[in-house]
Fold:
Amino acid sequence: MKTPGKMWMVCIATVTTIICGFLAWSHSASLAWISAVTQSEKSTILYAQNSLSFLVNKANEHLNVIVQDSSGSVGREPQEVIDRLETSLGDSYLYACVYKDDGTLIASKGTNSPDTFPQSYFFESLLYSDGNALSEINYDNGVLHLQTASLLEDGSIVLVGQDVVVDYVKKLKAMIGREYWLFYGNEEQFVPVMIPSVSEPSFSDSEKEIYRRLFKTTTDSQRPSSEVLPYQGKKAIKTATPLYDAEHWDVKGFLVQVTPDTYWKYGNQRIAQFIWIGALLSCIVAVFFLMRIYNKKRTDASIRMKKIYLVYSMMSFITVVVFVSYGTFGFLPALLRDYETSSVLTNSQALAYDIEEGFKPEISTASSLVENVKKVTGDDYRIFATEVTSQPSTFTTLSSRLSRLVLPLRFSGYSNGIEVGKTTIDRIGYTYGTFAAHGIEWQVFHEDTFVSNEILSVQFFGTILLIASLVIALVFGLVTYHLQDRLLLKNAFLGYLFLAPALIHLIWWAAGPLGFSLFLAFRRWSVVDPAKPFVGFDNFIELFQDGNFWNALKNTLVYSLYVPIGMMFSLLLAMAVNKAGKIAIALRVLYYLPVVTAGVATTIVWKWIFNRDFGVFNYILGWLGISKVPWLDSPQFALISIMIMSIWQAIGSQLLIFLAGLQGIPIDFYDAAKVDGAGKFSIFRHITVPLLKPTTLFVLVTSIIGSFQVFTPVYVLTQGGPLRSTDVVFYHIWKAAWSEMRMGYAAAQSWILFLLLMILTYFEFKLYGKDSWQAYF
Structure:
């Protein structure tokens, strides 16, 4: 049977939609991948910078020892101290100098000694130092080296230069496996430092502005910054971090870590392979089932076929659902976490090498070492003594609370003496690395929050894509089923086109936020904390144990009692306005003014009305010989005061609704009742009240919901006080969200409030009966 062109157009549209969907998911996944890789490289360069800190500490400790051993003799015999420095430093020695406090050179030996040292900020900083050695890098005569200096007791300064940068870069390449470039200068004026066959920065003049921007970003943020830039005809992630002077004040240079695409390109390749396999299979399956719908419809138009077409419609996108679900919740998270684990392994290897080579138990303690490492890397550490040493048996940089919340370590792999795996601390995922050195077990804890958030962003997008796939499947199935009914398709298209703005508005402002709040309710979500771990029902458990929440709920229930009182006043006023004749329009405007007036402004006016010393209420009570009432300052009267104000605010809207209901009652009913001799109360009871039931139900439901959402009067008048007597649920939720910054806990409270309102609304509908609410359907 020949397939018409219309069906082929549907198939082409389906294939195009599927490919576009997969490409959109691929873009989201690729962004998450490159973001996670970039963040890992930023973490790695911090460990490279930490290696430089070890080098600096080693140089400082060495000079301190020399100075202490030569105490009192440096000023008398400076050349002897210089000779000792030359002997002890060996091949790394460049020069040593001794200066008076006025900058006069006393003695020197070696090559590349700096002529401008007495005019430098380094020299000035040393004059005001405590005598401990300080170090910073210096670039002079084409040699980048480490300067270490110390202020002596007699006010003179000893300076030593070491050629250790070459070995430092070689060690980084061996430990971490990346290329490392060094630049000397600040973010505006810098020069590349060439180390033949070790580090040879290369870039064109056109790229210099890019590096200037990269260096400015990392200087301003004081954190590593990365960009994907050209490298040897390919791409590489270049991560820069500033190198500061001895006082950690001015930038002396930059360390750039070059990560070629061979390290991270495989992730993009695997994502691309996954996408194209999924797209190809999905297109084949979708076309197959849509063709089945079309052919079945042409041969069978029975009722049973209408049910089958729904099944076939969903089956046409089943492959899309499977691939997107697996990619979103399985494939990509595993890919990102594997790279995170390999990054922690690399960082742990670098730290293990530094500790093995640079840690001197006889000079410093392991606890002080890990505290200093944490300042550079931002990771947390835990140490355990495995042998009897002078070091502390246990120590951790984790807080005492967090150290008690470390769950058992889950082993993932082992390489070069480093064990890596996963653990959870206070519901937050961590990747750990463990190694042994100097009779101590060292544990590195790297927080996985960044990767988890990237995974979460992809899962958000993937979930939206899954929902959209199901809707699109039904649309294409419907189009295929009714392909021969051109008029029906045209009318359906026009109808949904006009419906689209309202539908988009409903999804964006109602369904979307509702779903997101449900998502938040199961997480510890704060706007100030990047970690947003899944906590299950913890927020709800805490809520049911929170006495303040139940106090707020009690206050809200009491506050909602103003609704029937206000409705009674509104109904009586509506009946009066209904019979007011020509002035009815003016009265309606007058009564409705509180509704259209700014709520904060009217609340401030009421605050003065309730004022204990100058308020209108107490002034009137004084005329009657009644003592002043602390309307807003007493737990006994504060909530009542807000209820009084709320009755006044609600009268306008309730009155207009009741007035519309009264004018909808046929006048014939009243005339017949009067003919029969019925009194005013009987008419009100037997005609007005029954016929106003739909209107009364509407006013009651909307007013009760509004009373549970009261916020402005509480915030302006009492802010929940005094003694939490006006702490209502909505204000309590607001405080949890924007004062305590606990969005997850606030969302859990919101859902409890939502469920309570649903239950109350259900009983209100039951109370008024079907004849009341069916009028609205």
